[in-house]
Amino acid sequence: MNRFLLLLIAGLSLTVISCDKEFSDPEGDEIARFNAWIQVHNIPESAKKPSGLYYVTKTPGTGASPQIGDWVLYSYVERTLDGLAWLSDNDSLMKLYNRYDNSYHYAPVFAKYEEANTQITGYSRYMLEGVFEGLGYMKEGEQATLYIPYNLGYKGNASNGLSYQSLIYDLELHKVISDPRAYETSLIEGYINDNYPGLEPINDSIYYIQLSPPTDETTQLAKDSVAYVYYKGMFLDGFVFDTNIDSVATNLGRKFSSTDSLKVTIGGNSVIKGFEQALLQMKEGEWGRAIIPSFCGYDSIGTSSIPPFTPLVFDIYFSSKGESSTKPTEN
């Protein structure tokens, strides 16, 4: 009898466990949670779109709305339903919520308005389906709050801890850009006018400024020359995205991929075109600054950390030609 009772209890336990698994419904649970949250917080039914997104305008816009193929510049705050700010382009807010990363470039997102559920080039961020839809309702200058059900967010397979999480998004659409190349040109012209008025580009490409004179006036570079250089790569707002200068990394409290000198063979395609063009203006021991349009950089492609159509600023130290180099201090 005791054995029979033990078997019966074990069987019932397995039945309960299997039933729990069978009726586990994270999707349904989150939908119910989202709908309850919407009701408790008095989000009007009129804000609901056919997809299930709730869209509420905070400040109306007066400019253009994005069309497929345009580029958009926008600011955002991503929150969970419990109010935790998870992601934002606002560094002060991320510090407040203890989610600040000093290696991340906190700036408005510049992205092609093309499709949802894709990683935005140059950012460790995704164009969520709900955000893509919300941007489509906006006009330039508009501020809006989106209430995004989980199936229009990260869905159920996110690696960032937001699986089956509904979200709140505060968006501000700064600009809709139909010609990103012209927009980039306006940014460069503004930077030059603010910092180096009257400076002209070299051969309609890069801008170059000598920061300190060379130590050897006779040593220059030509095709197939080998140079050893140190550099600091920045965006126009001064954020450093790469460097191999020890003192720069130390001052920033960050680690970069290398602190060794960079070996550059002129004409060898080891660096972007604009970087080579700057080196050809320099002599050994010289510090210079190059402002490089994207068509001499990463162009319309971008990289994992550099958005498309992004002008770059490089401070470059031409350490030596054809032989090992001496590490500089920050200029």
How would you describe this protein?
By secondary structure, the protein is of the alpha+beta class. It has two domains: 26-178, Chitinase A, domain 3; 181-321, Roll (Chitinase A, domain 3), CATH 3.10.50.40. The protein is 24% helix and 25% strand. The protein is built from seven helices and 14 strands. It has helices at 2-22, 26-40, 91-96, 129-137, 180-195, 246-252, 273-279; strands at residues 54-59, 71-80, 85-88, 109-112, 118-119, 126-127, 143-148, 167-177, 207-212, 226-234, 240-243, 262-265, 287-292, 312-321. Strands 1, 2, 3, 4, 7 and 8 form a six-stranded antiparallel beta sheet that branches. Strands 9, 10, 11, 12, 13 and 14 form a six-stranded antiparallel beta sheet that branches. A two-stranded antiparallel sheet has the order 5-6. The longest helix has 21 residues, at 2-22. Mean pLDDT is 91; it is low at 1-21.
What name does CATH use for the topology of the largest domain?
Chitinase A, domain 3
Number of strands: 14
Distance between the termini: 87 Å
User: Which structural category fits the helices and strands?
Assistant: alpha+beta
**What's the CATH architecture name of the largest domain?**
Roll
Query: Which spans of ≥5 residues are poorly predicted at pLDDT below 50?
Result: 1-21
State the domain count: 2
Sheet with most strands: 6 strands, antiparallel
- The residue-averaged pLDDT reads 91
Overall geometry comes to elongated
Strand content: 25-35%
What gyration radius follows from the Cα positions, in whole Å? 27 Å
Q: How much helix is in the residues? A: 10-25%
According to CATH, what is the class of the largest domain? Alpha Beta
State the helix count. 7
Order of helices and strands: HHEEEHEEEHEEHEEEHEHEE
